[in-house]
Amino acid sequence: MNTLSILALYEIPNVGQRAVEKVLSLSLSSEPQNPSDLIDILKKANDAYGRVSIPNNDDAEVGWNKAQEIWQLSQQNGIQIISRESPSYPKYLLQIPDPPVLLHVKGNIDAMNKDCIAIVGTREPTNYGYNAGRKLGEIFAKEGYVIVSGLAEGIDTAAHLGALDANGITVAVLAHGLDTIFPSKNKELSDIILRNNGTLISEYPWGTNGNKGYFIARDRIQSGLSLGVFVVETDISGGAMHTAKFCRNQKRALIVLQHPENLRGHLKTFGNENLISNGEADIIFEDDNDVDVVKIKMNQIKNSLLNSQKDKKDVQKSKLQMTLD
User: Fold this and answer.
1) Which end of the chain is more exposed for a tag (fewer CB within 10 A), N or C?
2) Distance set, CA 189 to CA 80, 104, 124, 161, 231 (Å)
């Protein structure tokens, strides 16, 4: 199914992620040409899998028209909308359990398919944490990695700036439509990222406002794009802890900064200490000498992901050959 048709399904009231996934599992002979076709496709998905809400004509037309509007606004504002079938879709993100069906991308679309490291942490860091986040962004950008973060205040901002300090590339994953920037004070930073060959990414279309659930969901994308997640500084319940959890589930490298003794026990380092004491960190990062250790670990992750990707392609090729025979 083409990208615009998928977008139209998402814009139909009461048609959600599970329904769209069921539709995409169907073998369709043709693309929908109008709202009625969308209804027919959803009926087929319901017959095949059950529990799919069937919209009325008015709701289907709302979804169809809204998708056309979003598509036009996105094109006018330099936003590409790609599906999981696109060759531009990030190869590592495609291997997580729940990759977004659609990505809305502004800027350098190729950056998503380079070797990335996510650098994350609290919005209200200590001075040590902020400076460490900026330094780490610079260090890993100089090593050739794309720096992924969430454009939030604090550690995210520091990581993006560090990458820019090194004339590197940085990717910001947002939890809302790309028509807005949150926080608004980082609008200038987002513009600088784009001017320096960076990228803004969201799974949410133009006009979508952020909410708590969306911010948590976007954390899986930060990890999924990356070979490793570097937790710079976080409290025990910070958003970076969600990213760390996704990192473990997605079998990426989890790197955790070890703070100096005078900051251990600080509220803003509880998350780091918890990850370290529980043995969840693949690498406890103590000083710059550990950069090479991180690179080695992420290269192992890269080889594992690439081999997994090759195995999947071989299976698909084998199934296709069996069908042809």
Assistant:
1) C
2) 20, 19, 18, 8, 21
pLDDT digits (tens, 9 = 90+) for 228-240: 999 999 999 999 9
Compute the half-sphere exposure of residue 101: CA atoms within 13 Å on the CB side of its CA.
21
Q: How far apart are CA 247 and CA 252, in angstroms?
A: 5
Cα-flanking dihedrals φ and ψ of residue 181, to 5°? -125, 130
Entry pTM: 0.94
Least confident span in 155-159, 303-307, 319-323:
319-323
* Residue 315 pLDDT: 43
Residues 106-303, CATH architecture: 3-Layer(aba) Sandwich (3.40)
Mean of pLDDT over the chain = 95
Sorted by where each begins, the domain ranges of the chain are: 3-76, 106-303
DSSP, collapsed to helix, strand or coil, labels residue 200 as: strand
